[in-house]
Amino acid sequence: MTRRPRLHVSSSCNNNKAPAAAANDDDWKFDRRNLLVGLGGMYGYGALNPLLASADPINGPDISSCGPADLPDNVDKLTNCCPPMPARIVDFNQLRRPQQSAAPMRVRRAAHLVAKDEAYMAKFTRAVELMKALPDNDPRSFLNQANIHCAYCCGAYDQAGFPDLELQVHSSWLFYPFHRCYLYFFERILGKLIDDPTFAVPFWNWDHPDGMQMPSIYIADQNSPLYDRFRNPKHMPPNIVDFNYGTGSDDSSVLDAQQLMSQNLTIMYRQLVSLGPTARMFLGSPYRAGDGPGPGAGSLESVPHASIHFWTGDPSQPDGEDMGSFYSAGRDIIFHAHHGNIDRMWEIWKTLGGRRRNFSDPDWLDSSLLFYDENAQMVRIKVRDCLDTRNLGYVYQDVEIPWLNSRPTPRASNNRVMRKGKKFDVLVNEEDEAMATPKHTEFCGSFVSVPHGSHHHMQEQKIIKTEMRLTITELLEDLNAEYDDQILVTLVPKTGCEGVKIGGLKIVFDS
């Protein structure tokens, strides 16, 4: 008979006062007494609105209803994130794709490895330069491509068939398919502009120590179209990216480069292997037609995805622009390199064995999204159309994956129980929050949310309900606690958690 351990919850309540404005890296602090924890059961959209078996796939956005995005107060409210209206919409499967015939496969290469390839860099730079030169009424222009992220992520769109119900592609099972399709069409447009169907965008190989810096190709020349002035000046090379960024203390200031790289590798193992054993845990929670936005993110979407967004953006800007805010993230060309690696992680995850397979749910497979292609025609693409990168005509460069051997280690041997954006950490069987770091087994995971707006018809409603799921099977095994009668869960608020309410926690046995 399987034991069902009792759950003991504690909330760290240090007295860190919130600063008036987040103008630098040290301003990620707040009064932890404002994080409210209840014990009445799981609280969130997924718990309050059980998904119905008869629900339907999301049928993309209603383009005709695209309205003002919910932008930060400092942004010009005349900013329009909506795309040009299409003359017609074509289905992806009706298009003839060169890569499905004799064209060679496009190979996405690691950004730090292409810097010395002068021919490639000339093509990449020229393609982005041409895209940025396109007029604003061209849906393929860099501005309109950047605004795709703003429209889909900041409340500009209704769900088709559900007026006044926001379509949101983050914090759900649409996160990976949306960004894959977004990057696919972006890449196709660049290739069309330089008349090279084999052109592929690079990926930021931040999961390998050699790639854990801001890639030089995006920062070496301030006159290059690959340069963006709104990046954190303190995080230029040789500084190492911090996957735990946004904790109230900068790990890069207390860990040397080797220690930080080692911690990053451990985080990668945790997010893909330990916390991502199933489709729901890795890809995110189901999101069907008629559902409210943000039912729950997968393991990688919070960390390191959101952490790297924050780490890259400029903290001197009001909302961490460009990368640190959803509405502006697509304005930085490094966004596409970042999401190239996120997309690559999806491919790697499927090779790790166990139950790591894509959803077979038709409501996921038949969900659809709209994008303009390289010929400036709007295309409807379904999730089922984008599941195989080879069918889309591209693969990733084969590089070493060192984090596969970076399983976390317990802080103490046989440790037992009696012990703006938003971020909090979750510890298991650890009474001393200051001692557990991301390298330790007791550090279960983090919730990180990139700032984004709510629906344009409901701007007075700012409350977002979501859920966070963490897999603890491997963690309890490593702590020799899988047969304990009770476990201690400690929530450690870190960033921007004023007024956050956690309605409860529970252990669910997933068969």
From TrEMBL:
Residues 358-409 form the Polyphenol oxidase central domain. Residues 1-22 are annotated as: Disordered. Keywords: Chloroplast, Copper, Disulfide bond, Metal-binding, Oxidoreductase, Plastid, Thioether bond. Residues 422-508 form the Polyphenol oxidase C-terminal domain. Residues 140-351 form the Tyrosinase copper-binding domain. Its EC number is 1.10.3.1. It is found in: Plastid, Chloroplast thylakoid lumen. GO terms for molecular function: catechol oxidase activity; copper ion binding. It catalyses: 2 catechol + O2 = 2 1,2-benzoquinone + 2 H2O. SUPFAM superfamilies: Di-copper centre-containing domain (SSF48056). InterPro entries: Di-copper_centre_dom_sf, Polyphenol_oxidase_C, Polyphenol_oxidase_cen, Tyrosinase/Hemocyanin, Tyrosinase_Cu-bd. Its cofactor is Cu(2+). One of its GO terms (cellular component) is chloroplast thylakoid lumen. Monomer. Catalyzes the oxidation of mono- and o-diphenols to o-diquinones. This is catechol oxidase. It comes from Cuscuta campestris.
